[in-house]
Amino acid sequence: MERSAKPSFDELDHRVLQALQLDGRAPFRRIAAALDVSENTVARRYRTLCTQGLRIVARTLPERLGDSRWLLRIQCAPDATTPLAEALARLPESSYVSIDSAGTQIHCGITAPDTDGNETPVLANLHRMSRVTEISAHCLLRVYEGDPPAWYTKLHPLTPEQTALAPPRDVPAPQDEDEPALLDDADRALITHLADDARATFPQLAAATGLSTATAKRHLDRLRASGLLQISTEFPPRHLGYRLMSYLWLRVDPSCLHDVGTALAGHRPISFAAATTGPYNLVATTITRSTTDLYRYLTDHVGHLPGIQYVETAPALRQIKRLA
Predict the structure, then answer these.
(1) How far apart are CA 265 and CA 49, in angstroms?
(2) Same-domain check for residues 174 and 217
(3) The whole model's pTM is what?
(4) Which segments constitute the HTH asnC-type domain (predicted)?
(5) Does one domain contain both 37 and 93?
(6) Nearest Cα to 65, choosing from 227, 295, 197?
(7) How many other C-beta atoms lie within 10 A of the C-beta of residue 251?
(8) What are the beta bridge partners of residue 111?
(9) H-helix or E-strand spanning residue 202
(10) CA 38 → CA 31, 34, 44, 237, 266, distances in Å?
């Protein structure tokens, strides 16, 4: 079988991708002005990136709605791994699903509504499956990196003027909010429509939701400014030459947990880092070009952070679902 040509990227492609990660809804004219190119050029590069896997989606932060996020590690029989991973990927509450390099463990992120301490339906169903041999569930306590994702912006940092594309926020970080946010019908209608296409125009949103254009804009501006709604830009890292995604499960001295999490968030290979419950109190995701790069990162950077007691590294063999 003939292998398809590998997508080629130049500096402008990287800049457009980074600008979209700063603000996935930024008009092409704003991006063009920031990058000093024409609006047509940005639109053309955007369309090409879309054919290569670019997705811009909207998602709410579960913590702002009183929900919680969990990371599941599911050990199962080899012949059951792929069917179960695909079934989990179809669930609306799952955000990502991947299979480890051994082909017997699934990593899955899910959102669980507040159930007064009762087990979530996903966990209950998994426990009843005969081909599942072990499950560990880790509740996210604080996210240091990944809300919204910022990995692409670390590759070739933009200038301070260009990073001004990022929309302003006018409230404290979502994880510092005490009371869950309340959504009205207009908010929910907008969120539903933006889930698959976060770049939908205000006239398109008005037509899809039955709201006026002005009302749609007012609600969306409020949702974004409050930090409740995040616009996430997703693009396959392999097209940029980064083919290895790995999970790092770390045990860290509690007194050093915040410092280690903050330090990891600033590292270029880190796409996600969060404090969790369970035997590992910090989990991170790395994106590297190769196992050699991963080794260098672990020895040159992670190994020098004070307070780390133990690190388990789990490369992902295949990603079934990304950024729902």
Answers:
(1) 26
(2) yes
(3) 0.86
(4) 183-243
(5) no
(6) 227
(7) 16
(8) 69
(9) helix 202-209
(10) 9, 10, 10, 26, 32
Residue 2 lies in a domain: no
pLDDT in tens, 171-189: 444 444 567 888 999 999 9
Percentages of the chain per state (helix, strand, coil), in multiples of 5: 40, 25, 35
What one-character DSSP code corresponds to residue 176? G
Residue 244 domain flag: yes
**Could you tell me if 69 and 53 lie in one domain?**
no
Which phi and psi (to 5°) does residue 183 adopt? -110, 140
Q: Count up the domains in the chain and report the number.
A: 3
**Tens of pLDDT, residues 283-316:** 999 999 999 999 999 999 999 999 999 999 999 9
CATH of the domain at 127: 3.30.70.920
Report phi then psi at 289, rounded to 5.
-75, -35
Neighbours of 104 (CB within 10 A): 18
Domain residues for 299?
A: 144-150+238-321
Residue pair 32/20 in contact (Cβ under 8 Å)? The answer is no
| Orientation angle between helical segments 39-51 and 11-22, nearest 10 degrees | 90
CA gap 86, 320 in Å, rounded:
7
What pairs with residue 69 in β-bridges? 111
For 272-291, b/e burial (b = at least 16 CB within 10 A) is: bbbbbeeebbbbbbbbbeee
How far are the Cα atoms of 84, 94, 147 from residue 129, in angstroms, in the given order?
10, 18, 33
Beta-carbon-side half-sphere exposure of residue 231 (alpha carbons within 13 Å): 25
